[in-house]
UniProtKB/TrEMBL annotation:
Gene3D superfamilies: Fervidobacterium nodosum Rt17-B1 like (3.30.565.40), Heat-shock cognate protein, ATPase (3.90.640.20). This is WG repeat-containing protein. Residues 480-554 form the DUF3298 domain.
Length: 572
């Protein structure tokens, strides 16, 4: 049997039919061709999760499917097991692609110490138990909450004010009569004496002995003898770090604190003190609290073998354990992350992937020119005036008229930029990018998608628009251009969508009575065979449902399609 044990790395390529992912080798050459909608890293077992047509499967290093794309999601393998999800529920799968669980579960967490938390629904309530590595229920579903095992024990809650420490067979080792007990951290537990959101956290041992009475407004489990705590009484932050004796090694005065490993800690001061949610500038400190740098970093990731990926307002780079920028490794303009992948470096900076040798030589980067045909191409433009505003916008090349081409490109650039006022943008992050949705003959359909996130908000707001551009005339077609004049396309399309909502289960999440029909300028896009009508988040569905989209084949619109019109002829 042919074997290949080489490092392969996921890499995306933008084409006239969209963005496709494959895998390159250390020379930057494709060892697995870019045919996937998305591709994740290869794992130590030589397997990788990929996406095809919205479904996930698993391939080996030759690009051959071990598991056909048929799942909604597939987790990384832990202890030789992955959690897969389809329309029936969650299952455990081994590395050969065999399902080990005999039935679907509402939820399964990835394995830790040969156990995986699972849940079922009973009387509209979630109950939790544990599976063993064979996928069998080693501990039945009986708990209100359940944490991962650590040092062969786990914290579970059976009833109100009753938490327990159990072993891997479910035997109770200790009981805690508190309204809240947190997950383990090196033999210590956070707890609350009062059942309220703003009640303070204390710290106790696994034996139930209180080490620190309720003191903290926030507490993170111990790691390597240190725990991050918060003592703020309001919306501000006062993070610090304590040791296992409960003494401060970092005083609680910071807006952010992150444990970096290798005896290093990132401490952050608020960019704007009266609005701490805007983020922090970080310094690197020792595990004893001594500052090694100024507050000069916008981000510092955990250390690995003496190096940590970090960014400032201009660049992304590695720093050493002294907090100094490593000049011999890549320093890239923009904000993102660097990571060692074997003996090469992967960069994900300003939402773009590239790879480098350890000496900084570029091996591969994403293409910025997208060929459409021998005549036309789309170029990637970039606008980044500051770290909170990043826009990639399309620019067309190859139109016969330079004047029309300039006008088209200016409109595309304008459509990609935020419509928010300067004042609102100063209080938000904004990113925008694009993909090619459809191209045929002289019609180019682009997807311009963006995301604006107001500082301090629970979530941001996505948006997308699909310009339909005639590359010969420079016309941006509208929905009405697809139909005969006076055809009342609004009423006809509205009725078709209404019927889909009534009869198709995938639209069961539409708010009752929210759908009132479409507007004359309803957002849309076309393919060769169908028209797609979509709505923005919150219009007719919950935010989490995204952009509800309705496919309408042209065969249902024969009586109103304007097949003699320029729009139709531009791609037929």
């Amino acid at each position: 049997m042919e074997k290949r044990r080489m490092m392969l790395f996921p890499a995306p390529v933008r084409t006239a039919k969209g963005t496709f992912w494959g895998y390159i080798d250390k020379k930057g050459e494709f060892a697995v061709q870019p045919i996937f909608q998305y591709a994740m890293d290869f794992q130590v077992n030589g397997l990788a999760v990929v996406e095809v047509n919205g479904q996930y499967g698993i391939i080996n290093e030759f690009g051959k499917f071990v598991v056909k794309p048929s799942y909604w999601s597939i987790s990384d393998f832990e202890e030789g097991r992955a959690i897969v999800v389809n329309d029936k529920g969650s299952f455990v799968m081994n590395e050969q692609g065999k399902l080990l669980t005999s039935k679907p579960y509402t939820y399964i967490r990835t394995y830790q110490e040969s156990r995986a938390v699972f849940s079922i629904m009973k009387n509209n309530t979630s109950l939790y138990g544990y599976l063993d590595l064979s996928g069998k229920e080693i501990i039945p579903a009986q708990y209100q909450t359940a944490n991962n095992f650590q040092n062969m024990t786990a914290i579970v809650q059976s009833v109100e004010r009753n938490f327990k420490l159990i072993d891997q067979k479910g035997a109770v080792k200790q009981t805690y009569n508190y309204p809240f007990v947190g997950m383990q951290g090196e033999g210590f537990l956070a707890f609350k004496e009062v059942d309220s959101y703003d009640a303070k956290f204390g710290v106790m041992t696994l034996a139930g002995n209180v080490m620190i009475p309720p003191t903290y407004s926030g507490f993170q489990p111990f790691q390597n003898g240190l725990a991050v705590v918060n003592v703020a009484e309001d919306y501000t932050n006062k993070f610090g770090v304590i040791n296992i004796e409960g003494k401060y090694v970092i005083q609680p005065i910071y807006n952010d604190v992150n444990l970096l490993g290798e005896n290093r800690i990132a401490v952050g001061k608020a960019i704007q003190e009266d609005e701490p949610f805007r983020g922090s500038m970080f310094a690197v400190a020792t595990s004893r609290g001594a500052l090694l740098t100024d507050f000069e970093f916008t981000q510092v990731l955990p250390y690995e073998k003496g190096f940590a990926s970090a960014s400032n307002n201009e660049s992304t780079f590695f720093i050493n354990r002294s907090g100094k920028v490593v000049q011999s490794l890549p320093i890239l303009k923009g904000s993102g992350t660097l990571s060692f992948e074997g003996d090469i470096i992967k960069a994900n900076v300003d939402l773009r992937i590239s790879y480098y040798t350890l000496t900084g030589q570029q091996i591969w980067k994403q293409n910025t020119v997208i060929p459409l045909s021998r005549k036309y191409k789309v170029l990637e433009g970039k606008f980044r005036p500051n770290q909170n505003y990043l826009v990639y916008y399309p620019q067309v090349e190859g139109m016969q008229s330079d004047v029309l081409e300039k006008q088209v490109n200016q409109q595309l650039r304008n459509l990609s930029m935020s419509k928010e006022s300067e004042e609102n943008l100063a209080n938000s992050e904004y990113t925008a990018d694009f993909d090619i949705e459809f191209f045929k003959k002289q019609l180019l359909v682009l997807e311009l998608h963006s995301y604006i996130y107001p500082f301090g908000a629970a979530h941001g707001m996505p948006s997308k628009v699909f310009p339909h551009i005639d590359l010969q005339t420079g016309v941006f077609y509208q929905l009405k251009d697809l139909f005969k004049e006076n055809s009342d396309y609004v009423t006809i399309l509205s009725a078709i969508i209404q019927e889909q909502i009534k009869t198709d289960e995938q639209y069961s999440y539409v708010f009752p009575d929210a759908y009132k029909g479409i507007s004359p300028d309803q957002p849309f896009y076309v393919s060769e065979e169908a028209l797609y009508i979509y709505f923005l988040p919150y219009e007719i569905v919950p935010y989490a449902a995204g952009f509800p989209t309705f496919k309408i084949p042209y065969t249902q619109l024969e009586t109103i399609l304007y097949k003699e019109g320029l729009f139709w002829k531009s791609f037929h």
